[in-house]
Amino acid sequence: MSAIITTANSSKALVVTRDLGQHHVKVTTADHRPYALSSLSRYSNQFFRYPSPKLDTIEFINILAKYVENNKHSVLIPTHSEDTYVLSKYKYKFDKFIKLPLHDYDIMKRMDNKASMALIAEELGIPAPKTILIQDLEVLNGTADKLEYPVVIKLRETSSSKGLSYINNKEDLISAYKQTIVKYDLTPDNYPIIQEYIPGEGYGVSMLLNNGDLRAKFSHRRIREYPITGGPSTCRISVEHHEMEKYAAKILEHFKWHGLAMVEFKLDSRSKKPVLMEVNPRIWGSINQAVRSGVHFPYLLYQMAVDGDVKPVLNYKLGVITRNYFDDSMSLIKTIGKSKNYSLCKEFVKYYDDDILSLQDPLPVINYVYTGIKSLKT
């Protein structure tokens, strides 16, 4: 029983490493950076470096493929968008030597594209924000006249809050839209989308499927996020929402999905109905929430890859709260400063299961704190 975890320098890779290690899987962590966060975990048996998958894709694939060929492991699990997409595209180079539980590259890119997912949601009858696609800037002015504000500008393919802008009027829309194109060097076929703003709380429905068949599910509600205007969750709670779960399963079954994915929704505060936000066809940042609630997605993925299938896990503990203390503290500071709700100060000292902090596995914590302090100085 052995696995390789790539992009080890992230909190979600640390969660995957710990979960597999606690299930007696021998873990090798890997990253292009030295002293990667997960490599310091007691559950990381060894560590090796490879070239950056972003800066030198072919060399990354060649060196990782050679390592896999020469070092016997059962499963290869990527944990970030960059390594996930690259490995999906070149997974034929690994098939002879290791299990790589990823869906087809072209499907993953379609699911990650907010423009195409808006069209697919409409086709499947799943509520989604009204979405405007623009390929010619000459129509922007006329389009801006017809919109109901506020609206949201989003990059078609991105994670977290990169390229996200909330717009309240026509002038700001035109200015921000053009600035986004320049900042991210976008071509007309990849111009940002403009979406209706949906007020309400954010939810995530996470699932594991085996070639289109549901094997595990989990839902959470966001309590806080950072940036507070829209970013990754920093504090969340396990919940159930059957309508969201039905929609999420419908999307993933449509693609005959294989592996892990999270489907994000907002519960519209006006209609009290779920609205699709996006699909993350990869391991997600709040995966610790599911693990702490009893759905061990990393180990289930490992088992499914090795054995071909896994017993369904459809129940979990409700009301479990987890956080990333460091990011959540930044969210609390910003929220208190904006709202003047000083009663939130008590949240700083409340104990919740943490994505990073662990008395049983302390070395990654030291690395995380040191890296955070170093980044604040630069």
How does this structure look, described?
This protein is α/β, with parallel strands linked by helices and 378 residues long. The chain has helices at residues 11-22, 57-70, 81-89, 105-112, 114-124, 140-146, 170-183, 242-254, 287-292, 297-307, 325-339, 363-377, and strands spanning 2-5, 26-31, 44-49, 75-77, 131-133, 151-154, 165-167, 193-196, 200-210, 213-225, 233-239, 259-268, 274-280, 321-323, 353-354. The protein has a 7-stranded mixed beta sheet with strand order 13-12-9-10-11-14-15. A hairpin with a 7-residue loop joins β10 and β11 (233-239). α1 packs across α10. The protein is globular, with a radius of gyration of 21 Å.
